[in-house]
Design brief:
three-stranded antiparallel beta sheet; 8 strands; alpha+beta; single chain; elongated
């Protein structure tokens, strides 16, 4: 297996980030017969993987916090109104519609859910 300098940009086989032209090496994988590219400097791959891990961790923490916020709003509205949370089909079925705002949190809004004008529950939607 001989490696050469990459003449075109490509995605690194090690870290997945783009390898700019001339800053990596290419080789032909013996198993798949595909051309692969990787950074010449392994510290770039290490830094990219660490950065990706921290970004993914922050994304997961935000998703978890948003889920908790939505669940708390759902529990609060259900407790104070006696209604159940419903899936919103008002975008597809004109018999259903959204009514008054029942409660809000930082990122979510709970609204009455109406079927032919009668309140049947509530929906929680992310604010835009």
């Amino acid at each position: 297996m001989t490696a050469r300098t990459n003449k075109r940009p490509g995605y690194c086989a090690i870290c997945g980030y783009t390898v700019p032209t001339g800053q990596g090496h290419i080789w032909q994988d013996q198993d798949s017969d595909e051309w692969m590219v990787a950074h010449n400097d392994a510290t770039i791959c290490t830094r990219n993987r660490e950065e990706s891990a921290s970004v993914e961790q922050a994304r997961e923490e935000r998703k978890s916090a948003m889920t908790a916020e939505s669940e708390k709003l759902t529990a609060d509205v259900a407790s104070s109104t006696g209604l159940k949370r419903q899936d919103d089909w008002s975008w597809d079925d004109f018999a259903y519609s959204l009514g008054a705002v029942l409660a809000e949190s930082e990122h979510f809004r709970a609204q009455e859910y109406l079927q032919s004008g009668t309140r049947i529950g509530f929906v929680v939607k992310e604010k835009k």
